[in-house]
Structures are given as C-alpha cells and as structure tokens.
Amino acid sequence: MLPFLDAALRNIHKQYYDDFVDRLNYYYTTLILLFLAILVSAKQYVGQPIQCWVPAQFRGGWEQYAENYCFVQNTYFLPFDKDVPREIVERDYRKIGYYQWVPIVLAIQALLFYMPNMLWKLLNWQSGINVKAVLEMASSAHLFETNKRQNTIRQLCRYLEDTLALQADMKGRSVRVLCVRLSRSSGNYLTCLYNFIKFLYLVNVCGQFFLMNGFLSTKYTFWGLQILADLANGREWPDSGHFPRVTLCDFDIRDLGNIHRHTVQCVLMINMFNEKIYLFLWFWMFLVGSATAGNLLYWICSSMSNTYREGMIQSHLRITADLGDTLSEKRLTQRFVRHALLPDGVLLLRFIKNHSGDMLTTELIASLFKDYVERNHLTDATDPKKALNRQSPSDNGRDTDHGFYDAEKYPSDGTNGSMSAPLLPSAPLISDKNNTLKAALHKHPQDDFADRLNYYYSTLILLILAIMVSAKQYVGQPIQCWVPAQFRGGWEEYAENYCFIQNTYFVPFDTSIPSEPMARKAQKIGYYQWVPIMLAMQALMFYLPNTFWNFMSWYSGFRLKSILQMAQDASGIDAERKEHTINVISHYIKHSIASRTSGHNMYFPFLGAKAGRQLKNIYVAAKLLFMINVLAQFLIMNRFLGTAYTFWGIQIMIDLLQGKEWSDSGHFPRVTLCDFEVRTMASVHKHTVQCVLMINMFNEKIYLFLWYWMFLVAICTTFNFVYWCCISFAGTFDERFVEYHLKVAKKESADTLTKGQINEFIRQCLKPDGVLLLRFIENCASDVLATDLIDHMYR
Length: 795
Prior knowledge:
globular; mainly alpha; 28 helices; single chain; three-stranded antiparallel β-sheet
C-alpha cells in the first residue's frame, strides 16, 4: 500500500466520545466507501473494464484504440429494438459517462462522511475541556487497583471542577458556528456542538441520496427500491436502462486528409460491479440515515432537558446513598446540575458512562457532588445522618483547595483575561487502530461454542469462500465459449464477457433449443454472477446477531470484556492479587446491578433493567436471532439457486450417489448457451454460442458443503437456544448454580444452607444478571474463581 494511503487509513479510527451511530457514519461507512473505491479502481485501471465488437477490417492495435477511446470518451445506451439515431445531438443526449468517475465519487462520498468528525476535532478544544484526555484517563481507571483507581478519580474530579468553574468565569467569550453563538460561560458549548455534529451527519447522509441520484442520472426518487423491484420482477438493464452492459460508441479517425466516423458496440463489464455496489450503498445509507435521524432526535431531547440531566445525576447519587427523596435534596441536586455541572459537565459524564461504565461514573459523580456541597457550605440542606457528610469511596486524601463553586451563589468577577484550563495528567493511550476486520472477527470470552459456530466460524468460512469465488470470477477465467469460425480478433473475448455478465441458459443435449425467446429466457441461469456478493451478505447476516449483542450489552452498562479479561488473568496470579481481583470484580458486579435496578435506566428500560434481568434477556434475544438467521439461510439459498427441492442438499447428494449428474438434473450446469446481438452495417445480427461455466464446478461443491454446514449449525443453535431459555426463565437453575458453588466453598457448613437463604441472596444481591455474569466467568476463567466470587459476595 502507498505510504500516504496507509497514513490516511490509520487516521480513520474509532474515537472515545462517540456512540455507535456516530461510528456508523464517520468510521464504518467511510471505510466501506474507500474499500469500494479501491476495488473499482483496480478493475478499471488494472483489469479490462470494456470490450468492443469492432468491424472485421480493423487490424493490429485498432481494436485496442477503439476500446480505450470509448472508455475515456463515454458511450451511449440504445435498446436493440430501436434504431441508432442519425442526429449526433440525440446520441449525445443518451451518453453514459459516470462509470469513469465512480472511484473518484466514492472517495468524495467517503470524505463527506468523515468531515463532521473532522469538524468536531477542530472545534471541541475551544470549550477548554480536553475531552480525549478525560476519556482516556477514565478508560484507564476502569478496573485499576483500589489506590490507583481512587487517585485517578481524584484527578478527574479536580480537573472537571477547575475546568467547569473556568468556563463560568469566561463571560463575554463565545464562538460563532454557522451563525449560531455557542457560549462557554453558559456551559453549553460542547453540548450544542455535539448535537450540531450529529445534525451534520444527518444532512450529509440525506445529501448522499441526491448526490447518487444526480451522479447516476436516475429518474427514480427512491432509486434503490425501484432497482430492487426491477430485478425481482425480471426487468433487466436492456428494458430499464440502469447500468447498461451493452452500449454504443462513436469515434472519428483522420485518414488521408479525410475524417471517417466509426460506430462500435461495447460490453461495459464494469457496470456489473457498479450495479451491485450502488444497490448495496443505497440500502446501507438508508439504514445509516434512519439510525442517524433517530439518534439525533434522542440526543436533542435528552441533552436539552433539565429533567433528564437531573434524573441521570439523581439516579447515580441514590446508588451510593448520597441522596434521598426529600424535596430539599432534590432542589440541591437541581442547583448542582444547573449551576455547577452545567450541560457540558453532564455531557462529559455521559461520555464517561458510555465508555467506562456505570461504576466509575457513579463514584465520580459522588465525589463531585460531595465536593460541591462542602465547597458551597450546603451541608445543612440535607439530613446530616445521610452519606452526604461521609466520604465517597474515592475521597480519601482529597485536596480541598481545588473545586468548583456555585456560579449563582459566588458570581464571577467578569475577568476577560486569557485563561487556560488546567492540564489533565496524561493517561496511557489505548490504541484503537488495529486492523478492522481482525478486530471485528475474534472470539469473545463470554460466548459458548454455539455462538462461535455462528458469528465466528461460519462468518470466516463464508468470507473465505467469497474471496475464492471472486478471485476465480474476476481474476481467472470463469467462462469459455465455443464461437463460430468466422469470429476474429476480439470477437471471442467480447462474446465471453457478454455471456458472463448477461447470463446464459441451460438446455439438455437431448432437447432442441427453443425457438421462442421467452422459452429461452425462462431457462436462464444468472446466479453465478452474484455468488461472491451473496456469500458476503450471508457472512454479514451470521455476524449481525453478535453485533446486536455487543451493542445492547454495552449500552446496558455492563463492561463484559473488561471484567471477563480480569477474571481470566486472575487464574494465574498469586493468592494476594487473586483476592484483590475477586474484591474488584465483586464490587463491580454489585454496583452494576445496583445501577441497573435504581429506577432510572438510561438505555432500553423495557428490557427488564429494574428486575435485574436486562442482560439475560438481551443474551437470549441474541441467541434467538442466531437461530432465526440460520433457518433463514436455507430459504435464501433455495431462492437464490432457484431449486425445486425443499431439502436441496440432501437431494443433490442423492443425485450424485445415484449417478445423476448436472446434465440430467440441471443443477449447476457446466455447459450452457448464450444469445447476443451485434449491430453491424445498420442491422442487428443474432448469434448463439455454447459456453463452459467452469465457475459452476466450484459453486456446486461450495453450496453442497454450505448446506450441510448450516444444517449442523442449525441443530446446535436450536438446542442451545432451548437450553438457555430453560436456564434463563426457570429460577431453579439459578438456585442450583449458586447452591452448588456455595456448598463447594463452605464444605463443613454446607448443610446449614437453606433454599430461602439462597433465594434471598439471588433476589437481593445477584439478580438474574449477576448469575449470568458468574456463568460467563465460570465458562471463560474457571469454576474455582466463580466459587470464590460467589462465596465472597455471599459473605
């Protein structure tokens, strides 16, 4: 890869502040568009994007000249049932020139998707808050040992207090962005900027539809839907004119002082790629646009609402018992949120919560709140018996000479001098620039074998097969035709290219070729063009349930990856460090469960968060999606291959065992026929050639293997789903799991354990989600560690 291209791709990496919808825009879509731009460029400028049928008198390099000219000068489309217009103006009106510009336009589209992210990087520093450093430090403190963790929280707390207080001092300073004045002194600069960036994402993705419609010169408003409807109804490019494969080209040659005009017919093989690329992009951008619109609406409503901000802070303070339900305490929280944290402070806490979890956010909010109360002498506003006057878990050794004050109670002196925010101590940078595919396709510690069969092994197999078939189709020679003897020069190559992109039809050798065009069309075989695309789509479908699980579990507030990695590392350490690790993990589980059941769940409260079973419901839903997907794969393969068999793989195997080959059954035929027309001397000549589809030899073996593989995966997934439904919704399984580990841990006093004690322990402390986390730890680390954890939490 060129050095500058490699450097550019390295700059496209996930940020710390963003959510999944932001990454859909600036990260995933940008990478997809750049990959497609490189792919099309390779086909255009390394492969052979065009092949022309030239007159028989053309010799030497005349054919190559005509093909190069027609590619760079554009061609025009005319259906075969229409005469070539005599007027040059009408021919120019029908010209198609977009195929030359596809790589450039795809690269521009990628840049447009990345530009809002560049604008955020350019403008967010003007708030005076080093967002990146704050989130990096919060991430590094996520599962530190106690002393280091408390020290990091103190540093974060001090930095946020000083920075937010500094913002309140900067009256009169504001930044104008597109005629909108964002004031730092009101503490809404970051919040308005973040919502504005999300608005730009929505504007961009909507503009992409107009860009594609204008670039492709389509007359359909909902272009992707109409193209898909045309394909489903058998209306191909000769009728619709979309991405035409066969076009005409005029060019002039000076010869002996005269100008001779030639018209040749060309096959635009590149348009077969363009059709599939833009069909995929239209639906991808429709998905991205829908997600972006919903996400923007959610963030505007939540970030502009004082009620939402106060509810979020109150829910975290209730977890640590720093807040009760009295009216005075609620008013104190309102003052804390409106005059100390300000909208930007709440936004930063939301970023920290999304990236580092609820436990760290709760401790940080508790520390900020206690410092605010002490700093403004408000301890009399609350009951002194409450934890308001006690130190929060991270307050030991706090330097009280720093802290933020109530901007309403202690107004600023209005100084406008140059001020800068205090520097935040540097935190180790967690690299996020690994190879995207390698980072995405890896095993997760919480998964069982059935999950990995679906999202890992099946996805890898399908991607490998897609690459193999693509290499054979677009690098090798997938088709070879037997052409009449009078074909000369590049006519044979023209016929083979045309027959590959336009489909062929199968007629057994003991059957006469139908004379009616409709009868031939009914026997057409066109799936072999789409095999790599379909295999890639099937791989994506197998991976989507895992994406759903990662997305939903992340927003549920549980940081599974970190906690399970810590559990795995605890297996090989000394006894003292192991005991410390058990303390940290048990502390994390209890705080995470408490935050989920506190009554204010930020994301997806309808999934059972208050009952403490949100994570378990998400996990079972992901397994249901795995099962639905693998069953749907059989319907997709049957539909795609056009087979009349319901149990297609079994019947194909029976045919092979009985010696019934493709020539009799018609499955994956190797020898097919192809009709094409050529305009010559103002008339249309029809030709029929016989072709060998070598690619079908691969396709037969690939899909036979895939059918039996998916049959195996379907059986495993179905049994696994039933098993998890039983242990998730029948409480006795959780009781037996906890009882077993407690009896192993207690040994001598095991007989004193009662069902009531175990049920009370699960109901009050663990909840169904806590039991699920312990099951994950048992599977990925060891049952010994799970036993120690349960015993520690029980005690």
